[in-house]
Amino acid sequence: QPRLVQFKLVLLGESAVGKSSIVHRFVKDSFDDYRESTIGAAFLTQTIELNPEITIKFEIWDTAGQERYKSLAPMYYRNSNAAVVVYDITQESSLERAKIWIKELQRQASQDIVIALVGNKADLEEERQVDNEHAKLLAEEEGLLFFEVSAKSGDGIKTIFQNIAEKLPVE
Ligand code: GTP
Ligand code: MG
Question: Localized where (predicted)?
Fold first, then answer.
């Protein structure tokens, strides 16, 4: 019988980068071309097997990216063990927004929070505006995990959560 260890995880990022789509791919293994913009925040859970002894349960807050909800974010990241900061590889401005979230987390979130920078919509290579190496370097400089993924195809989605789980303190 594996031991169950729970962690809180928050997703942050500009509206329409695909935060909800990433969570739905991870939790339900589904994708919707016409997902509605999140209002406030949504709560979902998913477990993954870290190893035969330990199962990790993620309690996930999928926040709303629209500017009008910005002031709610601290409620969700304040007690989080991990944060996934998402940008859209086809929108340069979304990386700028991601950098601001990273700064805010580094100042206001828990000292030992595990942060991942995630470039979503990797399936839209022909519309790319953000260079992979540029974002990867930025993540390295800030000491963050880094992934390019596609919620649409599912590529890389499980890897985000698996790698975060491996960095969390399970004792
Ligand atoms: P807010 O809730 O407003 O903050 O947005 P969000 O970040 O949750 O974005 P959401 O998941 O609602 O996705 C926005 C749009 O992008 C939807 O139309 C999705 O179908 C689309 N989308 C999400 N992920 C991908 C992806 O990996 N590839 C492509 N091509 N489209 C995607
Ligand atoms: Mg959403």
Answer: Cell membrane
